[in-house]
Write a structure and sequence with these properties.
The complex is a heterodimer.
Chain A: E1 9-14, H1 15-25, E2 30-33, H2 40-53, E3 56-59, H3 63-75, E4 80-84, H4 86-91, H5 93-102, E5 106-114, E6 120-124, H6 129-134, E7 143-145, H7 150-167, E8 170-176, H8 177-181, E9 183-188, E10 235-237, H9 251-266, H10 269-272, E11 275-278, E12 285-289, H11 293-306, E13 311-316, E14 318-320, H12 324-331, E15 336-341, H13 347-355, E16 360-365, H14 374-385
Parallel strand pairs in A: 2-3, 2-4, 4-5, 5-8, 7-8, 12-13, 12-15, 15-16
Antiparallel strand pairs in A: 1-9, 5-6, 7-14, 11-13
Chain B: H1 33-48, E1 55-59, H2 67-70, E2 74-77, H3 83-93, E3 98-104, H4 105-111, H5 113-122, E4 126-132, H6 167-174, E5 178-183, H7 187-199, E6 203-209, H8 213-219, H9 225-235, E7 236-238, E8 255-262, H10 268-280, H11 298-306
Parallel strand pairs in B: 1-2, 1-3, 3-4, 4-6, 5-6, 7-8
Antiparallel strand pairs in B: 5-8
The chains are: A alpha/beta, B alpha/beta.
The complex binds thiamine diphosphate (TPP), iron/sulfur cluster and magnesium ion.
Thiamine diphosphate binds next to strand 3 and helix 4 of chain B.
Chain lengths: ~375, ~325
C-alpha cells in the first residue's frame, strides 16, 4: 500500500479524528457512514482524508445502508469501517448479525451518547454496552474495545482492525462522547512500525475450487477468505450454511455453525483480552471501569489510597468477550468490586456474574449526560472497603 | 434403424454452465416466473461475453432473493431490502466488478425502496433486475407496494386499496439510465434487455412481470402458470420509448412492455474520479483499481464532469 498522504508523528486532535487516522494506519481504505452526533467528525475526517490515501468514502442514505455497504466493500477486498452513535447503532444491528454470520471482518464504531431514542445527542453515556454484545438477534459473538483517550482511539482502532481480520468477526469500537470530543496529543505511528494483521486470504489460484467456510483444523476455527473477482465463486449467505456456504436448513448445520462462531472467539479470549491493572495485588477493593470512566475513577482511587485504603484499578479495554478469568481470579482475593459506568447497570452484571458471590459488587450508576462526580466513586470505594 | 447410427449427444443447455448444478432442484414452484427470468439472465450473460470472474450477483431475501444462490458466480445473499447498498460497496471498492442485483418487488421497493432511489440518483454502475410478482412470495402472499388495486393478498384479504408503484417511472425519475419492462412470457426481449442493461454503464433497471401461481394467482383465481403466460401474451402491448408516467399496471389489464429509457449520464465513479483529480490535482491518490478512471488531462475531467445531464431521448 502506498504511503502517499499518510500523516505521522505527534498531532493534536480529538478522539473522533484519531479514530479516523487509526483506520488509515490500519490499512482501512473504505468507509460508509451517515452523520450523527457525536460521531460525525470521524466520517468528516475520513471523507477529507481518504482521497489523499487511496480510500473511498461514501455517505449513505441511512445506517442500514452504511452498515452493509462496508460489507460489500470487504468482499471486494477492502478493509472497511462504519461509524455511528446510539440511534444509528440501533439501525445497524441487523447487519452486525450479518457480518457475524457471514464472518465478514469489519469495524463498527459507536461513539456513545445518552439514550434511549434521541436522548441527549451531544452528551456522553456508556449505555450501549449490552446492545453491542446482544443487540442483533440470535447467538453470536463479537469483540468490543473501549478506548479512554484520543491516543487510545487511534491505537484501539488499529487493534480493532487487526482482531477483525484475525478472527473474521465484526469488531466494535465502543467510544463515548467524551473520548470522541476531547483533544489531546496523539502520536500517529510511522508506517511499518505498528503491527497490521493482513486478511486471511486463501492461497488458491484464480478460478480454483474454494470452500468459503472450510476450516483447516479444530484449533484454527477461522476459514480463509476470498474476494469477488477471483473466480472462486463463493456463495455468501446470512442463512445457516455449510462449508460450501450453501443454505443448510437443519439443526445439525445450525449447531455446528453456532458452536464454531462462538468458540472461535471464546476459546481465544486470553489472546483478545486487554485489561490494564494498577495495584490490584493485595487490594481489598478493585474498581472495574472502562472508557472515559476509567479516567474519572483515578482521582477517586488516589483519594482513597491517600486515606489508607487498598484500592486497585482494573480497566477493561476489551469489554467483549468479557475477561471472565480475570474477575473470577480476583473475586477470590478481594472484598469487593466497585463498578462505575455511565448507565444504570450493564457491565456490572458481568462482574457480578463472574464474582459469583465471592466478592461484593457495588455499582456506581450514572444516568448519562456527564461523567461521574469522582466523589460518588470514592463513597462506593469507602463502602466497599468497610 | 441400423446399429451403426450413433445417437446424437444430448442437447446442451447453455445456461447449465452458469448454474450451481449441485443445488438443483431449486425451491421455486411449478409455473413460477423466477426460473424463466434466470434462464434469460444466464442466456444474456452467455451472449455478453463478459470476463466471468468479474461478474458478481447480489440478492436480497425472498423467492427471487434465492437467485444468487443458484448461480455459479461470486454470489451474495444479503438481508431483506439491502442488496443494493451491499452491491454499492462491492462496486465502489472494486470498479472492475460487474455488479448485478437480482431481487423481488417487496425487497427492492418496500423495505429497500430508499436504497433503490439513492443508487439510481448516484448513478452507481450496476444493473438491478426486479422480478415483480406483485406479492411477497417467500412469506406466503402478502400485499406489496406493487399489488394492483383490487387484488387480494393474505394481508389485504378484501382486496388492496393502495395505489401501487409504477416501477419504470420510479426508476426513471430517480435517474436510472436504462429502464425496461418485460414479462416472463417475453423471453427473447427480456434476454436482450438484460444484455443491454448489463452492457450499459450506470444504473440500469429491468422489471420482469412474473407470475406467482402458488399465491398471487391462486388467491385471485387467475389460474396456473400457463394461464399467466396466455394472459401476458394477450394483454401485453410493446411500446418502446413510452412515457414512463403512462406505464402503470392495473389489476388484470394491459401491461405495457418495452425499453422506456436509454440515456447517458456520468456514472458515480467517472464523476468522482474526474472531480477529485481536478480539484485535488496530484494530492488525489486513486483507490485500488481506479487507475483507468483517471484522465491524464484535467480538462477532460472537467468535460466528463459536466456531461452529467442526460443526452438522448427516451427511446
Ligand atoms: C427485516 C426482514 N423483514 C421481513 C422479512 C421476511 N421476508 C422474507 S422474504 C419477504 C418478502 C419477499 O418478497 P419479494 O421481495 O417480493 O420477493 P418474492 O418472494 O416475491 O420473490 C419478507 C417480508 C425478513 N426476512 N427480513
Ligand atoms: S411462492 Fe410464488 S414466487 Fe415463490 S417460488 Fe412459488 S410461485 Fe414463485
Ligand atoms: Mg414479490
Amino acid at each position: 500500500m502506498s504511503t502517499a498522504g499518510l500523516l505521522t508523528g505527534p498531532q493534536f486532535m480529538d478522539g473522533d479524528h484519531a479514530c479516523a487516522e487509526g483506520a488509515i494506519a490500519a490499512g482501512c481504505r473504505f468507509s460508509a457512514g451517515y452523520p450523527i452526533t457525536p460521531s460525525t467528525e470521524v466520517v468528516e475526517r475520513l471523507a477529507a482524508r481518504f482521497p489523499e490515501v487511496g480510500g473511498v468514502f461514501i455517505q449513505m442514505e441511512d445506517e442500514l445502508a452504511a452498515s452493509i455497504t462496508i460489507q460489500g466493500a470487504v468482499w471486494a477486498g477492502a478493509k472497511a469501517i462504519t461509524v455511528t452513535s446510539g440511534p444509528g447503532f440501533s439501525l445497524m444491528m441487523e447487519h452486525l448479525g450479518l457480518a457475524a454470520m457471514t464472518e465478514t471482518p469489519c469495524v463498527f464504531v459507536d461513539v456513545q451518547r445518552a439514550g434511549p431514542s434521541t436522548g441527549l445527542p451531544t452528551l456522553p453515556a456508556q449505555g450501549d454496552m449490552m446492545q453491542a454484545r446482544f443487540g442483533s438477534h440470535g447467538d453470536y459473538q463479537i469483540i468490543a474495545l473501549c478506548p479512554d483517550s484520543p491516543q487510545d482511539c487511534l491505537d484501539q482502532t488499529i487493534r480493532a482492525f487487526n482482531l477483525s481480520e484475525r478472527f473474521r468477526v465484526p469488531v466494535l469500537l465502543m467510544m463515548d462522547e467524551c473520548v470522541g470530543h476531547m483533544i489531546e496529543r496523539v502520536v500517529i505511528p510511522e508506517p511499518g512500525t505498528c503491527e497490521i494483521t493482513p486478511r486471511r486470504m486463501t492461497a488458491l489460484p484464480q478460478g480454483a475450487e474454494y470452500l468459503p467456510y472450510a476450516t483447516k483444523d479444530c484449533c484454527d476455527m477461522v476459514p480463509d477468505m476470498t474476494e469477488a473477482g477471483r473466480g472462486h465463486t463463493p456463495h455468501i449467505t446470512g442463512l445457516t450454511h455449510d462449508e460450501r456456504g450453501y443454505p443448510a436448513m437443519n439443526t445439525d448445520a445450525q449447531r455446528d455453525l453456532m458452536l464454531r462462531l462462538r468458540d472461535k472467539i471464546l476459546k481465544f479470549e486470553p489472546e483478545i483480552r486487554d485489561v490494564r491493572l494498577d495495584q490490584v495485588d493485595g487490594a481489598d477493593v478493585v474498581v472495574v471501569c472502562y472508557g472515559i470512566t476509567s479516567r474519572v475513577a483515578i482521582p477517586a482511587i488516589e483519594t482513597a489510597r491517600a486515606k489508607g485504603l487498598k484500592v486497585g484499578w482494573l480497566r477493561l479495554v476489551t469489554a467483549w468477550p468479557f475477561p471472565e478469568p480475570v474477575i473470577r481470579d480476583l473475586a477470590a482475593r478481594v472484598k469487593a468490586f466497585v463498578v462505575p459506568e455511565i448507565n444504570l447497570g450493564q457491565m456490572v452484571l458481568e462482574v457480578e456474574r463472574c464474582a459469583a458471590g465471592r466478592a461484593r459488587t457495588i455499582h456506581v450508576p450514572h444516568a448519562g449526560g456527564a461523567v461521574h462526580d469522582p466523589n460518588d466513586i470514592l463513597r462506593a470505594i469507602e463502602e466497599a472497603a468497610r | 434403424m441400423s446399429a451403426d447410427v450413433i445417437a446424437p449427444p444430448p442437447p446442451e443447455n447453455p445456461t447449465e454452465d452458469w448454474l450451481r448444478e449441485e443445488r438443483i432442484p431449486h425451491i421455486w414452484c411449478p409455473g413460477c416466473g423466477i426460473g424463466t427470468s434466470v434462464n434469460c439472465f444466464t442466456q444474456a450473460l452467455e451472449e455478453s461475453k463478459l470476463d466471468r470472474d468479474n461478474v458478481v450477483i447480489v440478492s436480497g431475501i425472498g423467492c427471487t432473493g434465492r437467485v444468487a444462490g443458484y448461480l455459479k458466480l461470486d454470489s451474495f445473499h444479503t438481508t431483506h431490502g439491502r442488496p443494493i447498498p451491499f452491491a454499492t460497496g462491492l462496486k465502489l471498492a472494486n470498479p472492475k466488478l460487474k455488479v448485478i442485483v437480482y431481487s423481488g418487488d417487496g425487497d427492492l421497493f418496500a423495505i429497500g425502496g430508499n436504497h433503490f432511489f439513492h443508487a439510481a440518483r448516484r448513478n452507481v454502475d450496476m444493473t438491478v433486475i426486479c422480478v415483480n410478482n406483485m406479492t411477497y412470495g417467500m412469506t406466503g402472499g402478502q400485499v406489496t407496494p406493487t399489488t394492483p388495486i383490487g387484488a387480494k393478498a393474505t394481508t389485504s384479504p378484501f382486496g388492496n386499496i393502495e395505489e401501487p408503484f409504477n416501477l419504470p417511472f420510479i426508476a426513471h425519475s430517480c435517474g436510472a439510465v436504462y429502464v425496461a419492462r418485460w414479462t416472463s412470457f417475453h423471453v427473447r426481449q427480456l434476454t436482450k434487455a438484460i444484455r443491454d442493461a448489463i452492457a450499459k454503464p450506470g444504473f440500469t433497471f429491468v422489471e420482469v412481470i412474473s407470475p406467482c401461481p402458488t399465491l398471487f394467482s391462486r388467491r385471485n383465481r387467475l389460474g396456473d402458470g400457463l394461464d399467466a403466460m396466455k394472459f401476458y401474451k394477450a394483454h401485453s402491448e410493446i411500446r418502446n420509448g413510452a412515457d414512463t408516467r403512462e406505464v402503470a399496471i392495473s389489476h388484470q389489464s394491459k401491461i405495457i412492455c418495452g425499453k422506456f429509457v436509454d440515456i447517458t449520464r456520468t456514472t458515480w465513479h467517472d464523476a468522482q474520479a474526474a472531480h477529485l483529480h481536478r480539484v485535488m490535482g496530484n494530492r488525489f491518490v486513486p483507490p485500488r483499481n481506479w487507475e483507468h478512471l483517471i484522465k491524464s488531462d484535467p480538462m477532460e475531467d472537467l468535460v466528463a464532469e459536466t456531461i452529467r445531464d442526460s443526452s438522448g431521448d427516451g427511446s
